[in-house]
Write a structure and sequence with these properties.
Layout (H helix, E strand, L loop, with lengths): L21 H6 L27 E6 L4 E5 L11 E5 L3 E6 L5 H17 L5 E6 L5 H4 L4
């Protein structure tokens, strides 16, 4: 492997709080605020994940509505798409006869739920008939 020309890369400096050089402070005029009570160190523990009661949402593009339905296998209907919000895991279930618009709206809702969480949930799209065991555990 050849040598890397370091002049083409940005310089990384570690600056301790309270020992900021003047050059650094002039780059942030009035923008730098030091507040009490923060965590120190590089490794900050992840935020505690809130307790979450799973919820099942039905996406019905014909009516243009999305609404919560009982969390039961009987609620799933192959003519619609559903979103199972299990907190750390978001499942987008696409019925075999659901419309393209319902599938799109369900995927969008899954992404929206994912984006509003402080932690990083895992979103998975599944097709009717190809559900993993972990999906069905929420219906027991």
């Amino acid at each position: 492997m050849g040598r890397v020309n370091r002049r083409d890369f940005p310089k990384l400096l570690h600056i301790d709080e309270g020992a900021e050089p003047t050059e650094f402070l002039t780059l942030l005029p009035g923008a730098l605020q030091i507040r009490e009570g923060g965590e120190t160190g590089i490794l900050v523990p992840p935020p505690e994940q809130p307790k979450h009661k799973p919820k099942l949402y039905r996406i019905d593009s014909e009516s243009g509505e999305t609404y919560e339905v009982p969390l039961s296998r009987g609620s799933l209907d192959g003519e619609d798409s559903f979103v199972l919000d299990a907190g750390i895991k978001i499942w987008v279930w696409r019925g075999s006869r659901s419309s393209v618009m319902e599938k799109f709206d369900a995927a969008k809702m899954g992404r929206d739920l994912d984006a509003e969480r402080a932690y990083e949930p895992d979103t998975e799209v599944i097709e009717e008939g190809n559900e993993p065991r972990q999906f069905w555990k929420h219906f027991e």
